[in-house]
Amino acid sequence: MLEALSTSDFHLEGMSKHFLDATNRQLKEVDKIYQYAMSKGVQHIFWPGDLSDTPKMSFGTYMKLVMFLKKYDGIINTYYIGGNHDRSDVENTSCDLLKLLQSHGFFKSFRIFLEPEQDRIDGTLVNFCAWPCKESMSEKEGALNMAHVEYNGAIGDNGRKMKVNKDFASYKRDFTVSGHIHQYQHMKQQRVIFNGNPYQKNFGEALPKGFIHFKTATTKNVVEMRHRFIDNHPNFELHTVVIESPADFSRLKDNNNIRYKLLVAPDVLVPPDLRILYPNITGGIFNSDTKKKA
After folding, report:
1. What is the pTM of this model?
2. CB 42 within 8 A of CB 1
């Protein structure tokens, strides 16, 4: 039986507009997941995609990430599966330095997969389906697919059902855990779980945010999955606030752990000192009818 956690879509360097200390805040949220693993005796954590927000990471972010990984290196096995935001072209990704460090033995228990690969972990056959892999690699045996994909009918980050040309192709005996979509969801018929991200990346994303704790076993060549969604209770939040009258401005708080985006009714006058009173309005002020900047 394989017991593990799965979390993804950290998008490092993708929240600097909202927080000056964004990377530190993001890694603290990831650290909470590792502390949960330590408390439960879980030995494996999967990251299926989008470690970075762009195909390039600054040296400072790399150093913080490497130090984080070394903190749990040799204690917890971490498996990173490349996502679409990591890759700039066929050859180059934001994670090439991590791959180089791993290949030279710098890490004891961190593994990174930037190309499709297969391995067996605690008796379960695992397909590491790094983006843009669109199909399972197993043929004769049920496998756990760790992927970074979309499915037709899944709820996207904007809250709407997705329409995709072709679903990830897997066998009925497989089970898939995917990143890419930031909201946790379980599509039972397709045998897929989206683990979601541990905190809000954009204002359109709803709470709760968290990760999954799962156990898999292969019975009669079929991968059976039991899982729980664990609410991460992130220490920072992104709120979209609708302002329909001047009194609604009083709902705002000057709180360094909250960032606001405002949708203001066209007949409501925005106070000229609003951003001075609430410097945590980082998502912009928009006309609630036209959605254009007010």
Report:
1. 0.95
2. no
